[in-house]
């Protein structure tokens, strides 16, 4: 029994506008499974779920993003300095704005999407040449070692590196983006604007998976979601995530 990260969920005032931004940013396609939801995923015959891509679901909520930095963000891959500069310029033309999260003088560029969700355009790095447009999903945390233990047990992704400063996981198939937990002193003060969604494998029981996660340290989360086919939980540091129903 195990779960797989299949999408990043982003809350937005306007799911369609934010979804279009991310589709254009990544060169992906948009669709909608229902009102208030925009699905962003690769085109060209991509069949969800597939570890080659962690997709994006943009979901409408009534509350705007606060000034607080998101604890989860995306880092985009580039293949050269010229590609990085071109991508940053194109993203700004699409509505991205420069963001200052205290990064100082760094080789990557920090931007925010049209509703203020921070993300980075990385400098070219050999380790991200085969990830696709999303190099990694980055999660701020207090204890990367503990997060590696929980998320390594919660999912079937392989733990590649664990230090006191960060922990890195990737699909056991060796494809798609990385999931990185990075040490941060920032405590959670507002509900997460961006979170991960996990999916059971066909034939696995969602309720049993949720029970297993609780033995690892997950706790129930009530966001006012009501009667829905997914289950909302928090990891041991309070990062929100959802376990989806059978797809």
TrEMBL record:
<dbReference type="Pfam" id="PF18029">
    <property type="entry name" value="Glyoxalase_6"/>
</dbReference>
<dbReference type="InterPro" id="IPR041581">
    <property type="entry name" value="Glyoxalase_6"/>
</dbReference>
<dbReference type="InterPro" id="IPR029068">
    <property type="entry name" value="Glyas_Bleomycin-R_OHBP_Dase"/>
</dbReference>
<protein>
    <recommendedName>
        <fullName>Glyoxalase-like domain-containing protein</fullName>
    </recommendedName>
</protein>
<feature type="domain" description="Glyoxalase-like">
    <location>
        <begin position="137"/>
        <end position="244"/>
    </location>
</feature>
<feature type="domain" description="Glyoxalase-like">
    <location>
        <begin position="8"/>
        <end position="122"/>
    </location>
</feature>
């Amino acid at each position: 029994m195990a779960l797989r990260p299949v999408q990043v969920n982003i809350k937005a005032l306007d799911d369609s506008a934010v979804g279009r931004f991310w589709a254009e940013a990544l060169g992906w396609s948009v669709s909608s499974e229902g009102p208030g939801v925009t699905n962003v995923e690769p085109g060209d015959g991509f069949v969800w779920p597939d570890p080659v891509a962690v997709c994006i679901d943009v979901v409408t909520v009534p509350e705007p993003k606060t000034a607080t930095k998101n604890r989860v963000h995306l880092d985009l891959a580039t293949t050269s300095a010229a590609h990085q500069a071109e991508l940053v310029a194109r993203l700004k033309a699409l509505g991205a704005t420069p963001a200052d999260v205290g990064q100082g003088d760094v080789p990557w560029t920090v931007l925010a999407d049209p509703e203020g969700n921070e993300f980075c355009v990385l400098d070219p790095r050999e380790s991200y040449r085969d990830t696709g447009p999303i190099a990694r999903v980055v999660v701020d945390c207090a204890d990367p070692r503990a997060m590696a233990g929980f998320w390594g047990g919660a999912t079937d992704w392989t733990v590649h590196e664990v230090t006191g400063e960060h922990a890195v996981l990737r699909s056991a198939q060796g494809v798609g983006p990385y999931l990185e937990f990075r040490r941060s002193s920032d405590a959670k003060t507002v509900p997460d604007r961006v979170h991960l969604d996990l999916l059971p494998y066909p034939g696995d029981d969602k309720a049993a998976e949720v029970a297993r996660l609780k033995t690892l340290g997950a706790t129930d989360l009530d966001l006012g979601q009501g009667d829905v086919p997914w289950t909302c939980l928090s990891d041991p540091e309070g990062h929100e995530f959802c376990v989806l129903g059978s797809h």
